Amino acid sequence: MKLNDKVIVITGAANGIGKALAYRFAREAPKKLVLADIDRDSLEAIASELPMAEALACDIGCEEGVQHLVNSTLEQHGAIDLFCGNAGILRLGGVNTSDADFQKVWDINVQSHIWAARAALPSMLERGSGYFLITASAAGLLTQLGSLSYSVSKHAALSIAEWLAVTHGHQGIKVSALCPQAVESNMTAGSDGSVAGIDGMLSAETVADCVVEGLDSEDFLILPHPNVKQYFQNKANDYQRWLGGMQKLQRQFADLMPENVIDGGQELK
């Protein structure tokens, strides 16, 4: 997909990967960038630097917020060529994660993609074209040590991406799943030396470059960390051995996984 002259929506655009996507996409001369987040001030600051961008503050953790984002974009610009579902949050913790925390992670990391597709697909199908980019994380292909809710939600996000590609691919709908490991953002701040950066912490700008390349070739999996492909293959080829390796990694980093809660807002990841 070439991004020039396209109408593009980016959620979680106030920070991290979403912010980097906005600046990187702007270099491709899109028709319009609609930047969405709950952080209105940061959004407006970014939009003020990008002539083709506009800020739309909304909460994608509820269906009404996603519907407002999609409907407003369609009313103002007539189409959505690329919907980047990038917003996400992380909660550390295992089975004792509260239902309320788990639900919030689920709504933002999973339901937001379903709501986006529910709202945007009809117009895309009518035109016979449309593209969804879902930030699923390497955790969606592997797992997330220290966070049950994040691991489960990212597996689900990847499953949504797969299902959309399988079900609507013949109708002109394209899908990519962005699956990086650790990326410099508020979410990973202070995690140097932990499992988050075991294969290197990439800048959000590097990830954004990979996204443009992946969209250009319409790759389903966009893997800024090349190691992830091999890990995924190892998992498929010998599940038992992969589990043993992950158990070893869990023991290695167990002391660096406090049972606290991390939530920097929807702009993260």
UniProtKB/TrEMBL annotation:
InterPro entries, alphabetized: NAD(P)-bd_dom_sf, Sc_DH/Rdtase_CS, SDR_fam
Keyword Oxidoreductase: yes
Keyword Oxidoreductase: yes
Molecular function as annotated in GO: oxidoreductase activity
UniProtKB keywords: Oxidoreductase
Pfam families: adh_short (PF00106)
SUPFAM superfamilies tied to this protein: NAD(P)-binding Rossmann-fold domains (SSF51735)
Family statement: Belongs to the short-chain dehydrogenases/reductases (SDR) family.
Protein name: NAD(P)-dependent dehydrogenase (Short-subunit alcohol dehydrogenase family)
